[in-house]
């Protein structure tokens, strides 16, 4: 799992600041989107999801924003903590009728 | 990891040998998936299953086969391993085909 992080775009954020991770999705027909977090040596973990009939959804310290016009998804993490350091993936599907398609991921590095 | 066990966690094998990876779930979820993860490619779907004995190919299925004889077990077989199949393999399960839960992964090295 250590090699996951190679060749990925990296976002470095100061501890306590807010983080914004962006994702451009490919299929304009996709109607369900999901964010995963992957820590080193572990499998991806679900963070938050959103359906296409919504523009915004909030969870605990995380917010997902969906802009269907430009096929863009973002994950905002408030008050970023060292434990947030990981690789973050977005994924999309058309009602589950097509398997989830994952983006290539962004590495978030939190500077203490 | 949501009641998912992958075995083995690590394996080193030689080119040309058969390899079987196992995924076992205790959640009774209908859907099961095998992904591989490689630098620069992210997670790519190999095969998936929507029920016992019902499977379908994913994006990168060549060189792989699967079997699901019980709800809880999904096996991935590399009939004759090649160096290009060196990767980290993840099993995932889902009740809805939407939200997937992933196992801890198997690191496979083919020498």
Description:
The complex is a heterodimer of chains A (112) and B (111). Chain A is globular and about 40 Å long. Chain A has strands at 10-14, 19-24, 32-38, 45-51, 56-58, 62-67, 72-77, 86-93, 101-102, 106-111. Chain A has 112 residues and is mainly β. Chain B has 111 residues and is an all-beta fold. In chain B, a hairpin with a 2-residue loop joins strand 5 and strand 6. The radius of gyration of chain B is 13 Å and the shape is globular. The chains are: A mainly beta (112), B mainly beta (111). At the A-B interface, strand 3, strand 4 and strand 8 of A face strand 4, strand 5, strand 9 and strand 10 of B.
Task: Spell out the key features of this protein.
heterodimer, A: mainly beta, 0% helix, disordered N terminus, B: 111 residues, mainly beta, seven-stranded mixed beta sheet, four-stranded antiparallel beta sheet, globular
Please count the beta strands of chain B (DSSP E, at least 2 residues each). Answer: 11
Any idea what the radius of gyration of chain B is? 13 Å
Structural class of chain A: mainly beta
- The number of helices of chain A is 0
Helix content of chain B: under 10%
- Number-wise, the strands of chain A total 10
- Note poorly predicted spans of chain B: none
What is the overall shape of chain A?
globular
Could you describe the largest sheet of chain B, including whether it forms a barrel?
A: 7 strands, mixed
Name the helix and strand elements of chain A from N-terminus to C-terminus, one letter apiece. Answer: EEEEEEEEEE
Largest sheet of chain A: 6 strands, mixed
Largest interface: A-B, 27 and 27 residues
Determine the fraction of residues in helical runs of chain A and give it as a percent range. Answer: under 10%
Query: Between the first and last Cα atoms of chain A, what is the distance in angstroms?
Result: 24 Å
Mean pLDDT score of chain B:
95
Taken from the alpha-carbon principal axes, the silhouette of chain B is globular
pLDDT average of chain A, as an integer? 91
């Amino acid at each position: 799992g250590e090699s996951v992080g190679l060749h990925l775009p990296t976002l470095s954020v100061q501890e306590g600041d807010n983080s914004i991770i962006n994702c451009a999705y490919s299929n304009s027909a996709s109607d369900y989107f999901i964010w995963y977090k992957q820590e080193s040596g572990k499998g991806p973990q679900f963070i938050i999801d959103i359906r296409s009939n919504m523009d915004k959804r909030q969870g605990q310290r995380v917010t997902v924003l969906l802009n269907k016009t430009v096929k863009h998804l973002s994950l905002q993490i408030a008050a970023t903590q060292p434990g947030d350091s990981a690789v973050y993936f977005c994924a999309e599907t058309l009602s589950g009728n097509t398997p989830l398609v994952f983006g290539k991921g962004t590495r978030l590095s939190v500077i203490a | 990891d949501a009641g998912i066990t992958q075995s083995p966690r690590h394996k080193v094998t030689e080119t040309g040998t058969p390899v079987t990876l196992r995924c076992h779930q205790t959640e009774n979820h209908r859907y099961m998936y095998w992904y591989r993860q490689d630098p620069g490619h992210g997670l790519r779907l190999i095969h998936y299953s929507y029920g016992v004995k019902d499977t379908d190919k994913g994006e990168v299925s060549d060189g792989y086969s699967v079997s699901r004889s019980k709800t809880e077990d999904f096996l991935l077989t590399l009939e004759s391993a090649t160096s290009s199949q060196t990767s980290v393999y993840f099993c995932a399960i889902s009740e809805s085909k939407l939200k997937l839960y992933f196992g801890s992964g198997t690191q496979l090295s083919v020498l």
